[in-house]
Specification:
The complex is a heterodimer of chains A (110) and B (116). Chain A is mainly β and 110 residues long. Chain A has no helices and 11 strands. In chain A, the strands form 2 sheets. In chain A, strands 2, 4, 5, 6, 9, 10 and 11 form a 7-stranded mixed β-sheet that branches. In chain A, strands 1-3-8-7 form a 4-stranded antiparallel β-sheet, with no helix packed on it. The N and C termini of chain A lie far apart (37 Å). With 116 residues, chain B is an all-beta fold. Chain B has no helices and 12 strands. In chain B, the strands form 3 sheets. In chain B, strands 2, 5, 6, 10, 11 and 12 form a 6-stranded mixed β-sheet that branches. Chain B has a 4-stranded antiparallel β-sheet with strand order 3-9-8-7, with no helix packed on it. A two-stranded antiparallel sheet of chain B has the order 1-4. Chain B is globular and about 45 Å long. The A-B interface holds A 4, 31, 33, 35, 42-45, 48, 50, 55-56, 58, 90, 92, 94, 96-104 and B 32, 34, 36, 42-46, 49, 51, 89, 91, 93, 95, 100-109.
């Protein structure tokens, strides 16, 4: 069974630009979660999508947004990038209480 | 709101030493508790979990017991190996009435380094 996949692996942007990150959940999983792992700040919950709807949102500004497609894959968009957005962005899909994580996208904002 | 407080590291041990990483939590309802491990350059992998009080999760020689009375979920291993070197995260998924809230709340992470 294929795991959660994310693309791209690395992304380099400059301040003010927009970044788009993609995630494909495990087949049969309908929920996708996004987390930010910034250096020294641990893992912070960003967004939760289930059945195409945004179900919950963490304490992040509105320039962090996303969507979930009919095939349950998901996209995270970060507008007006700031230096502090540099982080590893992890996507996870769920089966019951367990969340299965992808390898992450490393976003660097210069 | 929910929170997880994890023993700060880094922790450095010699091979075959005993490991304990402390984790305490604050949550409403009856959360599920998890330990995740992150090896260098990789994403998170579920190490073990417990879904109710007094449950013991175990995997790869690691164990943790869900202690509701002390709101704790300490990770233990009797004899660590060099290959156990990684970052360990304690996490909870809040629940109420059996319904998962979905998101995981993580502790700060503990870096474990095991020397030969």
């Amino acid at each position: 069974e294929a795991g959660v996949t994310q693309s791209p692996t690395h992304l380099i942007k400059t301040r003010g630009q927009q970044a788009t990150l993609r995630c494909s959940p495990i087949s049969g999983h309908t929920s996708v979660y996004w987390y930010q792992q910034a250096l020294g700040l641990g893992l912070q919950f960003l967004l939760w999508y289930d059945e195409g709807e945004e179900r919950n949102r963490g304490n992040f500004p509105p320039r962090f947004s996303g969507r979930q497609f009919p095939n349950y894959s998901s996209e995270l968009n970060v507008n007006a990038l700031e230096l502090e957005d540099s982080a590893l962005y992890l996507c996870a899909s769920t089966k019951l209480d367990e969340q299965f994580f992808g390898p992450g996208t490393r976003l660097t904002v210069l | 709101g929910d929170s997880v407080t994890q023993m700060e590291g880094p922790v450095t041990l010699s091979e075959e030493a005993c490991l304990t990483i402390n984790c305490t939590y604050t949550a409403t309802g009856y959360p599920s508790l998890f330990w995740y491990v992150q090896y260098p350059g990789e994403g998170l992998q579920l190490l073990l979990k417990a879904t109710k009080a007094d449950d013991k999760g175990s995997n790869k020689g690691f164990e943790a017991t869900y202690r509701k009375e002390t709101t704790s979920f300490h990770l233990e291993k009797g004899s660590v190996q060099v290959s156990d070197s990684a970052v360990y995260f304690c996490a909870l998924s809040g629940r109420a009435g059996g319904t998962s809230y979905g998101k995981l709340t993580f502790g700060q992470g503990t870096i474990l380094t095991v020397h030969p």
